[in-house]
Amino acid sequence: MSIVHPRTHGEAKQALANGASVADIVQSSLDAATHNASLNAFRELFPESALRKAAEVDAKLKAGTAGPLAGMTVSLKDNLCYKDHKAGASSKILEGFTSPYSATVVERLLAADAVVIGRTNCDEFAMGSSNENSAYGSVNHPLDHKKVPGGSSGGAAVSVAANICHVALGSDTGGSIRQPAAFTGTVGFKPTYGRVSRYGLIAFASSFDQIGPFAHNVEDTTTIYQAIAGADERDSTSSRKPQGPIALAHPGKLRIAYYREGLERPGMDPEVVKHLQQTIDRLKADGHTLVPAELPMLDHLVPTYYILATAEASSNLARFDGIRYGHRSKAAVGIDDTYKKSRTEGFGPEVKRRILLGTFVLSAGYYDAYYAKAMRVRRLIRDNTLKLFNDVDLVLMPTTPITAFDQGALSNDPIAMYLQDIFTVQANLAGTPAISLPTAMHNNGLPIGVQLMAKPFDEALLLGAAKHLF
Ligand code: GLN
């Protein structure tokens, strides 16, 4: 039968109970993607494998053996590997690459009977805050095509915001899930570093990268998080700590810190500030204790992140040499020339900037002045962040200083673009879990998000608070 794509996994389960099939739901998702092609959210749809998987799940439902994600449609950011499917990190250098294996998260999704409908556009190698760095064009904001959807997981955010699929998997190295979630009015969740295996994620900055979901609500966020979280012997940084079932219970009265900087910092949109103040007042009225705090080392957050992330990126991206994967220059003669020309032709300007910056801060003469110093500052940021959690359960802050901006507005000013990440990079520097929730609409008609951060491995509290306090 022909149906409208259900908005959430809960609605999909209802549709199944009313006689729809998983094949109907998947077809409606593929149709919605085609209908919304002008958003440029998808690099590719996977109709064949999606409908094959749908038929398998329908048979399992009949037999009573279907997994917990039956009926759920999911998109994958273009930096996640899915066996026998293309993955390209939205870079020309990976043109033509087909993955011979699946990321652990993809294996777990399929084992739980979700259906993957396609791969989403993103900033090249996940470097960016607006999705304008994709080699395959910008993603358009569903509410205003002239605005950016945020980045780097812009296509992922839009695939959910435009009701194409229930859930999207993205990656968050410095805010790439939470910032586009705030811009598009979706929920975006970055788990604790190490909670979700990074095996099969095309690496950007390995000590920061974390995979996480976008969804319309906390329930779907939690369902998919539980399916993908947990130890994996193929990722030595994945935590052995078991993630118990998350009941999404009301957490009771909490102590919540908020940063004065979130209210006073120049460059903040006054309506974003007003909304944060109203949220603080409302939570107080609900009986929670709100504690003003100082954002540890505010002015050092973005520089520390950009030194360390570019250093790690320069090392991770050395493997794209024109020999083993993707693009090889046709003009090259000999090995050195092949490296040089393939990389020159294959990488876009932002990725080149990061490789150069990262190579510089790691170079013999500058290592101590930049890389080693930034490592020490990161430790202080982490220690100060964790210390705050001796006194409070959660930290509340804006996700972004402003709402979705015009395409082209910041793309010629890298520093202004980097400063957009002021509120998101702390969680990556400290390894803490954080979630962005769509809590208001700005007068300009665009969504505003607020962010909650918890201490490492406190996902159950974070998700429970996200559901009941907002
Ligand atoms: N905007 C940040 C950057 O460009 C974060 C990217 C990310 O989280 N992948 O590095």
Describe the structure.
By secondary structure, the protein is α/β, with parallel strands linked by helices. The protein has one domain (1-470): Amidase signature (AS) domain (Amidase signature (AS) enzymes). The chain is 39% helix and 13% strand. It is built from 16 helices and 11 strands. The chain has helices spanning 9-17, 22-35, 47-63, 104-111, 154-161, 178-184, 218-228, 261-264, 270-285, 298-316, 335-346, 349-362, 367-388, 414-419, 425-430, 459-468, and strands spanning 42-45, 73-77, 115-120, 167-172, 187-190, 210-215, 255-259, 289-293, 394-398, 434-441, 447-454. The radius of gyration is 21 Å and the shape is globular. The mean pLDDT is 96.
Short structural summary:
This protein is an alpha/beta fold and 470 residues long. It has helices at 9-17, 22-35, 47-63, 104-111, 154-161, 178-184, 218-228, 261-264, 270-285, 298-316, 335-346, 349-362, 367-388, 414-419, 425-430, 459-468; strands spanning 42-45, 73-77, 115-120, 167-172, 187-190, 210-215, 255-259, 289-293, 394-398, 434-441, 447-454.
